[in-house]
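Hi F.,

I've been meaning to write this up properly since the lab meeting, where we talked about keeping a consistent format for the predictions we share between groups. The idea is simple: the sequence comes first, exactly as it goes in, then the structure tokens exactly as they come out, then a line or two of notes. No screenshots and no reformatting. I'm using this chain as the first example so we have something concrete to point to.
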Amino acid sequence: MNSFLVNIISGLSILIPAFLIFIRRRRISSIYYPFAILLWVGAFNEILSLTLIMNGYSNLINANIYVLIECIIIIIQFSVWNYWPVRTKYILLFCAVIVWILDNLIFHTIDSNNSLFRMIYSAVVLGLSMSVLSRTLLTEYRPVRKHPTILICFSFIIYYASKAYAESFNVFHLNVDMRFYYNLWIILSVVGLFSNIIYIAAVLCIPRKMPLTIPY
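Output, unedited:
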């Protein structure tokens, strides 16, 4: 199985959790709305990227725009989980936009393979995920395998740790064999597939929203 096919399977696998959460959209707890949007945006980007590639066009522009949108949505999700003050959320969003502009418009062009922003925001997501995961494990009574926040953060840790590591080779221009890069991106695609499988479990475990009751 070649790397292109592995990448397609990995990318399109996000359609499954995106479809499941779309079906359950009216019943899921509101604290997972950013996660739902993350899945839908990710699914749209994968379909768009595949369409462009199959028609002989590059997907670098939409990929570079997508990572910024993805970062913004994830920051909003963590702001919900952590009950951040509004100022904290907007400071992080502002910093993310500035780093993205520097990487994609100042240091490089938006139609090139830019890894600085990807590496930095992957490291930030990794740190935030570990913080929320450790806190949730200590305070929640539900089994680990049935807690959506734990599953999502676990998936984030696996994927974004791998992504930060992979992108660092492109940032620092390390002199390694091309075969190493080939195997590295194969592994990242497999990790992405595994993460999307965990997303499926997380979606199925998201609790229903609490019904509105009117006191008498």
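Notes:
The mean pLDDT is 91.
DSSP finds eight helices and no strands in the chain.

If this format works for you, I'll send the rest the same way.

G.
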